[in-house]
Amino acid sequence: MQKMIMQKIAAALFAAFAGAALIAGCASAPPKSVWSPSNDGSVAFYVTRHGRTMFNTARRAQGWSDTPLTPAGVEAAEQLGKGLKARGITFNAAWSSDSGRARETARLALENSGDTGIVLEETKNFRESCFGSYEGDTDENMWGNAGIHLGLGNTVEEAYGAIFGAMMAGHCTMPDVLGAVKSIDTTGLAEDYHTVKTRMQNQLIELAEEYAEKGGGNILIVAHGISILAMISDWTDEQPQGG
Fold first, then answer.
1. Cα 185 to Cα 201: distance, rounded to the nearest angstrom
2. Pair type for strands 43-49 and 217-223
3. Are residues 166 and 205 in the same domain?
4. pLDDT computed for residue 20 by the predictor
5. Which stretches of the chain score pLDDT less than 50?
6. Phi then psi for 160, rounded to 5 degrees?
7. Is the separation of the CB atoms in 120 and 94 below 8 Å?
8. What pLDDT shows up at residue 2?
9. 173 and 205: one domain?
10. 56 lies in a domain?
């Protein structure tokens, strides 16, 4: 069943934003009431990470915790929308995680693409990985302690300096690192890679089934870096080495 569903999906990841002129007055566009099916009945998911946030800038762990977009993050989301408009890409539906940073990114992208008639929907299944007791802590402390757990150093500073190089070299993977975070978390809430991948993929397949029945179309998804990596990890030839 999953293979049949995935044959109907064309997935696109936006890695860069292109600029175009903002169309004035687009906020007054009427809501879309008619589904516009694709020519071949396929469902195309356009998947993007949220814009830069306050915790991203401060280099603090941000999974289920949430901080607002910075001015740079707002600009990136706006440029995403303008780039979509320049390419003539419109959507039949839009989804985000229930985190404010993802919701704001999706809203700004839709506003600037002219797709303001779409009602943005959200789901907790598209959340970033939960980091448990490390939520809001420094990146160095979380990844450094994970690195110590994996034997990559004896101090936080040493392990933090080694962990990303180890992933790039293939000595450990993102599943290994998230597993380490889960092992050292004191709340019992931190998620491992499999848990994140399963909830992300199940939600995407559910949406693919729903929209395929309507004739297909383009769907915008705004989620998070590690959760997106987990979602596509075994649907591509790439291995999940790092985020």
1. 25
2. parallel
3. no
4. 22
5. 1-35, 240-243
6. -65, -40
7. yes
8. 44
9. no
10. yes
